[in-house]
């Protein structure tokens, strides 16, 4: 199986493994996120998440960075009031929860560090892979602002040489109407188009900056990739991809995390995501379940 994954990743830039997780395991992850939502702390620990809204970007970025080893709650635009108060039910207004689920949640840790994932990542050639971040993505029903813009993961998770692989687990059946992933097959062979880095201009308002504008990608060249619940999509760091909004009334949840190599690999100091002081990114092969 892993040989096929490697071949497909090298050829297309992504690979689907149907049914990697059982219905019971998917339910366990969904129940865990319900528990985490119930434990949501006070308003000061909430932030709105939007890919294209530049307002409050500084606050959002600081909150994002602080969430790297814990649980942060990211809401759709318009879900919170001026003082952070929640205006709608969190079950339908969360954009995502992250970015340390793999570290602090026993359930997500168990599946992130499970032997199935380790075996596949090992067979992809990784020697010392680490997890940079993990996210639970809600993709709320009926087209709330949950589309994800065209991007390469390596823009945000850059190494030299490129070593990022995304692991994306469908926790519902994901159809085209529900906002499945779309890929530009083979686009991973075109290098890293831009990076998202710590702003070299220390006086600038924004903590982070793109090194180039978004290229003008031709959307007609993208392929939709619908998958069944429990399936796992492995994503090459350089493949260009995106997802539309969920236009149905049904949920379309996913759990995703990103891996990079550390062996003979440079993780630049100006990458926007850095481990917190005194900490390191968690090693996939060394860490065990809680
Ligand atoms: Fe992505």
Bound molecules: fe (ii) ion
Q: Strand-residue fraction? A: 15-25%
Helix count, per DSSP? 8
User: What is the typical, i.e. mean, pLDDT?
Assistant: 89
Describe this structure as you would to a colleague:
The chain is of the alpha+beta class and 290 residues long. The chain has helices at residues 2-12, 23-38, 57-66, 90-93, 101-104, 106-112, 115-123, 153-156; strands spanning 14-17, 46-48, 71-75, 94-99, 129-137, 148-151, 165-170, 181-183, 196-198, 208-210, 223-225, 232-236, 241-243, 254-261, 282-283. The protein is built from 8 helices and 15 strands. Strands 1, 2, 3, 4, 5, 7, 12, 14 and 15 form a 9-stranded mixed β-sheet that branches. The longest helix is centred in the first third of the chain and has 16 residues, at 23-38. It is globular, with a radius of gyration of 18 Å.
List keywords for this structure.
binds fe (ii) ion; 290 residues; 8 helices; four-stranded antiparallel β-sheet; single chain; 22% helix; nine-stranded mixed β-sheet; alpha+beta
Quick take:
This protein has 290 residues and is α+β, with helices and mostly antiparallel strands. 22% of the residues lie in helices and 23% in strands.
Task: Explain the layout of strands and helices.
Blueprint: H1 2-12, E1 14-17, H2 23-38, E2 46-48, H3 57-66, E3 71-75, H4 90-93, E4 94-99, H5 101-104, H6 106-112, H7 115-123, E5 129-137, E6 148-151, H8 153-156, E7 165-170, E8 181-183, E9 196-198, E10 208-210, E11 223-225, E12 232-236, E13 241-243, E14 254-261, E15 282-283
Parallel strand pairs: 2-3
Antiparallel strand pairs: 1-12, 3-4, 4-5, 5-14, 5-15, 6-13, 7-12, 7-14, 8-11, 8-13, 9-10
The structure holds fe (ii) ion (FE2).
């Amino acid at each position: 199986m892993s040989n096929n994954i490697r071949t497909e990743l090298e050829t297309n830039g992504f690979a689907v493994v149907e049914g990697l997780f059982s219905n019971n395991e998917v339910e366990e992850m969904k129940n865990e996120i319900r528990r985490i939502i119930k434990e949501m702390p006070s308003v000061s620990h909430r932030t709105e998440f939007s890919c294209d809204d530049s307002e409050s970007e500084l606050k959002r970025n600081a909150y994002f960075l602080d969430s790297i080893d814990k649980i942060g709650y990211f809401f759709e635009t318009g879900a919170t009031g001026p003082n952070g108060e929640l205006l709608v039910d969190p079950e339908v207004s969360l954009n995502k929860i992250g970015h340390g689920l793999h570290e602090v949640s026993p359930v997500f840790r168990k599946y992130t560090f499970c032997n199935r994932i380790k075996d596949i990542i090992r067979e992809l050639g990784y020697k010392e892979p680490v997890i940079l971040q993990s996210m639970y993505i809600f993709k709320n029903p009926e087209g709330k602002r949950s589309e994800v813009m065209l991007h390469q993961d390596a823009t945000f998770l850059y190494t030299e040489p490129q070593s990022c692989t995304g692991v994306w687990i469908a926790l519902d059946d994901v159809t085209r109407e529900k906002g499945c992933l779309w890929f530009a097959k083979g686009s991973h062979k075109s290098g890293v188009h831009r990076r998202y880095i710590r702003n070299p201009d220390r006086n600038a308002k924004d903590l982070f900056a793109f090194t180039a504008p978004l290229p003008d990608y031709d959307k007609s060249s993208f392929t939709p990739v619908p998958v069944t619940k429990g399936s796992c999509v492995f994503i090459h760091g350089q493949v260009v991809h995106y997802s539309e909004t969920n236009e149905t009334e049904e949920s379309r949840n996913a759990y995703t995390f990103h891996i990079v190599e550390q062996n003979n690999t440079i993780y630049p100091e100006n990458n926007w995501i850095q481990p917190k002081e005194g900490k390191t990114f968690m090693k996939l092969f060394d860490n065990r379940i809680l």
